[in-house]
Amino acid sequence: MTLSLNDVAPDFTAETTEGKIKFHDWIGNSWAVLFSHPKDFTPVCTTELGYMAKIKPDFDRRGVKIIGLSVDPVDKHAGWAQDIKETQGHAPNYPMIGDTDYNVAKLYGMLPAAVSGDPAKRTAADNLTVRNVFVIGPDKKIKLILVYPMTTGRNFDEVLRVIDSMQLTAKHKVATPVNWKNGDDVIIAGSVSDEDAKKQYPQGWKAPKPYLRIVAQPK
């Protein structure tokens, strides 16, 4: 299954380190980040899970829930959490899915439909494609898909930056320019006419080109 932006995120029921969840119910009216890793006790993901735990308050402030996934069983996650705390200073403080039947990985196109068998006998290389980030909106639609190679750690600060942009542009008819950070100037969306823009921004805007209308970030 190939998912695209604005597709409805597949719903599922799964066991997690915080009990059984039904994904859409768990999201509720929040935003959500679903991020996966190939296998427990893998080095790069150990650093990622620890960092995600460290910055969880930043996601909380934005109304974003975070949830991890591995094809290993939930009871193995608990042992890995101890290693993560010991080496990274923070243990996972968010649910981790135990996707032992590969259901979620297949629903989200992270493993081929033909995958089967005991996850304990699979290596991280076998699960090569299970290394993704999905950002899902309160409408349960997919807003962002990131796929990383095995040897490159993910940048979760970038995920926060993108969420800031998406939450802002969902509220206001603006777009964010290259390397934008919260508080920087924004661009009036092309769908807004100059006439309507004057009503929204009576103070005016900078326009180095007619199609490039720059204003301060709306509050």
Structure summarized in a few sentences:
The chain is built from seven helices and eleven strands.
What can you see in these coordinates?
With 219 residues, this protein is α+β, with helices and mostly antiparallel strands. It contains seven helices and eleven strands. A five-stranded mixed sheet has the order 5-4-3-6-7. The chain has a four-stranded antiparallel sheet with strand order 8-9-11-10. A hairpin with a 2-residue loop joins β10 (206-209) and β11 (212-215). α2 packs across α4 (74-88). It is elongated, with a radius of gyration of 20 Å. It starts with 12 loop residues before the first strand and ends with a strand.
SSE layout and pairing:
Blueprint (H helix, E strand, L loop, with lengths): L12 E4 L2 E4 H5 L3 E6 L6 H12 L1 H6 L2 E7 L3 H15 L7 E3 L4 H5 L24 E5 L5 E6 L8 H16 L2 E2 L10 E3 L5 H7 L5 E4 L2 E4 L4
Note the main attributes of this structure:
219 residues, alpha+beta, Glutaredoxin, Antioxidant, Horf6, Chain A, domain 2, 2 domains, 4-stranded antiparallel sheet, 11 strands, elongated
